[in-house]
Amino acid sequence: MVTILQAAAALRAKQLSSVELTDEALARIARLNPKLNAFITVLDDEARARARKADAEIVAGVDLGPLHGVPIAVKDVFATKGHRTTAGSKLFFNNITDYDAAAVEKLRKAGAVIVGKTNMHELAFGITSNNPHFGAVRNPWDTERIPGGSSGGSASAVAAHLVFMAIGSDTGGSVRIPAAFCGTVGIKPTFGRISRYGVLPLDFSLDHVGIFARSVRDTAVLLNLLAGYDARDDSSSRQPVKRYVPGPEAKIRGLRIGWPDDLNGQRIDGEIHVAIDRAARMAENLGAVVVPVQVPDHIALNAAHRVILHSEVSALMKPFLSQRDKFSSALLALLQQGLLLSATDYVDAQRFRRVAMQEFAKVFQKVDCLIGPTTAIPAPKIDQTDVSFEGETEDVRLAATRLARPANLLGLPAISVPCGFTQQGLPIGLQITGRPFEETLIFQVSAALEDASNYSGRVPAIASAPDPEKASNNRRTR
Amino acid sequence: MVTILQAAAALRAKQLSSVELTDEALARIARLNPKLNAFITVLDDEARARARKADAEIVAGVDLGPLHGVPIAVKDVFATKGHRTTAGSKLFFNNITDYDAAAVEKLRKAGAVIVGKTNMHELAFGITSNNPHFGAVRNPWDTERIPGGSSGGSASAVAAHLVFMAIGSDTGGSVRIPAAFCGTVGIKPTFGRISRYGVLPLDFSLDHVGIFARSVRDTAVLLNLLAGYDARDDSSSRQPVKRYVPGPEAKIRGLRIGWPDDLNGQRIDGEIHVAIDRAARMAENLGAVVVPVQVPDHIALNAAHRVILHSEVSALMKPFLSQRDKFSSALLALLQQGLLLSATDYVDAQRFRRVAMQEFAKVFQKVDCLIGPTTAIPAPKIDQTDVSFEGETEDVRLAATRLARPANLLGLPAISVPCGFTQQGLPIGLQITGRPFEETLIFQVSAALEDASNYSGRVPAIASAPDPEKASNNRRTR
């Protein structure tokens, strides 16, 4: 069972029950979480109770949609009523809210079974998910490697088939980077598309709620559910939601796909380059037109993103900085650096941001979407600080984030979809970026490529070993 | 002849010609500008040519609307094709553009006769209009006093009956303060309502285009003309324009007018307080309900405005700061201080701004508009730095701006309408602030008060002395 749509069909056909699915998820978590460290909190009892209720509802003919009775996970940055929400930080060790985040509310209403809260980078401010307080999250394809971050636990849990989907947050690639490193689908929709109410903020002008799943169609089903205006989030958009209704065949004939010339100037791992080229050729074989386009300089886009990110995070965290022992020394240093930025630097970055948005709007008059790699490197090792390629050394964090940050700066929807594996067996992510509020188009393109290549939903070795608990469950079902 | 609507009627009735009106305006400028210094550039020839064309058009039955053939003025911050636009700064001494600002374009299309470009505070960054490069603008009610600023020349020219209307820009009160000090009507509409294309920017998140005229109905006619979306200004709003069609009687029965309790805590000149109280009672007599309301703290609103203003202006001017001799020493010091602000201060101010907007939205659920004084003091003397009242001393610039700045921070529409005179004969301005894009309501309220009190359009002594040129013109007409 790989996708939510498959699980939903099986639940409706009474081929299995939500209790079985949930028990299986909890058993896999019990078996694999000690190796992956993907969860901070597992909600066994609550999940089982919700699953029993879902089964009763389904028997009674209630149908809450495809998530009804399906086990899922939530990044530990989303408020969940009655449970703690840590943001991976000591500051919020005992932060128990009496309300749900908007996205959690919607998932619950859709009948999803929340089995736990996922581990993450400290305060979501980084991409290794090597958490000093809750331990490093591991990549299920190679547990010596990072899953990416900041939503590393959500990606790891979905990739290891612990849950069918998870939500995360993305401020500079924090959904797409772990999706690429772990071989899941991951989307960061347009700024304002999913409510951020109840999400512990990192950076108000860059934070987005995002989704991890094991297929493009699952991701689309989830975005349909989570998108929409929410008065409780003042950045929430009133733009009507375009629903992507995934058909059996996604056609892209005649679509114009932009290939940013800028990619040619960026250092990108050779195997990744090959995979992306292959995806582009595949799109052409499916009838799309791949068009080279000029886009604003990625160095300037990254610089503007960094100035805005650091300024806004430091402003937000300033009141907490006197509690030095609540931060890792690395994070404290980052936050203190942010205090040194000048207002005019920040204003200049915001001005550049507006100009860049206009420039990208022009690009999107010529093409329907842009493609490229999600990351310039595959998942690095835990504690690896630098990466060398083409004879030069680069900070791992920069190599991982520089292709992902622009979509946050610009508020554009971007999806990462698996498009291959390195020879070492590490997943490679293809990033497709679209026009504001045109998520349907990037779903269409990524679904077509997924259908033609089938890299999504593969099972890493760690998760494919037989599971006694699952075997017994299956026996009981038959 | 006081208002545009009167002039338009007379032109249509062929009781006078645009050439006569324009000659009269130019003659008054020739006579009074040496005393008022309201103009940096007078466009005699171009104005006369346009007036002749207007007369020919009117004879031919062309009707471009109420501004057709009417002499007006433009603050020297609006680009005017083929003429210099200085922004009152040495930096732009020879800045001749080959295009018109959007507002100028619209005025021209409406057949207005632009007689000149008005003097202003250096770079629009201040409220005295005591310009170090072009000389101090004088208040026509007392030429020893400032007209307010930064659009001081526009206010002075309209108040002294040199032109029927003028446009200005308002970043922290730069239209409403001079309107109050000079006894004209002045409006700063909602942020994004009038295009800023072609306006030399001071501060992109606070700058608004505004209008000076001698009656509320004139002001409304002009806003109808100037409002609307413009793709060339990325802050321009697509909100549909509500047109205010001024009837002979403005009714306010049943309207709820908010009286900010915050005013009670502010130091306000006694005579101004009396005038505002009188206006409030007048509104009640006309059937409106005056309701005390709690509004966010004005000190915080002013602090946030100041941080944003100084950060954005300094970012904008940073590239010019090496040209030290192009700035007055006072302005240079202000701009250098702005460089010292931190990014986190700026971010905090923007966060507060969003919260304050939400707070004001709640206030506007209870009332239709807010009233209060435009300024805490009447026009001070040129070179006066402090003002003393209630036993304390305050910087003139703060006393003049603190009631006006919040509407810029919040983007709310606000009008200043004459509501009395001090015993020394200085005008007093009543400020009416409305909901976003609800200019029609503040026009309705201010028109009702104007009708009931008739403080608008009065002629200062300096302008009421007989003008030989005008007399001869009138003879010719009869």
How would you portray this structure in words?
The structure is a homodimer of 478-residue chains. With 478 residues, chain A is of the alpha/beta class. The first copy, chain A, has one domain: Amidase signature (AS) domain (Amidase signature (AS) enzymes), CATH 3.90.1300.10. Chain A has 17 helices and 15 strands. Chain A has helices at 4-12, 18-36, 44-59, 102-109, 152-159, 176-182, 216-226, 262-265, 270-285, 298-317, 329-338, 343-366, 396-401, 405-410, 439-453, 461-464, 468-477; strands at 39-42, 71-75, 113-118, 130-131, 135-136, 165-170, 185-188, 208-213, 256-260, 289-293, 369-373, 386-389, 392-395, 414-421, 427-434. In chain A, the strands form three sheets. Chain A has an eleven-stranded mixed beta sheet, sandwiched between helices. In chain A, a hairpin with a 3-residue loop joins β4 (130-131) and β5. The longest helix of chain A is centred in the C-terminal third of the chain and has 24 residues, at 343-366. Chain A is globular. Residues 474-478 of chain A have low confidence and may be disordered. The A-B interface holds A 204, 234, 307, 310-312, 314-315, 318, 338-348, 351, 354, 358 and B 204, 234, 307, 310-312, 314-315, 318, 338-348, 351, 354, 358.
Layout of SSEs?
The structure is a homodimer of 478-residue chains.
Chain A: H1 4-12, H2 18-36, E1 39-42, H3 44-59, E2 71-75, H4 102-109, E3 113-118, E4 130-131, E5 135-136, H5 152-159, E6 165-170, H6 176-182, E7 185-188, E8 208-213, H7 216-226, E9 256-260, H8 262-265, H9 270-285, E10 289-293, H10 298-317, H11 329-338, H12 343-366, E11 369-373, E12 386-389, E13 392-395, H13 396-401, H14 405-410, E14 414-421, E15 427-434, H15 439-453, H16 461-464, H17 468-477
Parallel strand pairs in A: 2-3, 2-6, 9-10, 9-11
Antiparallel strand pairs in A: 1-3, 4-5, 6-8, 7-8, 7-14, 11-15, 12-13, 14-15
Helix pairs in contact in A: 2-3, 2-17, 5-6, 7-15, 10-11, 10-12
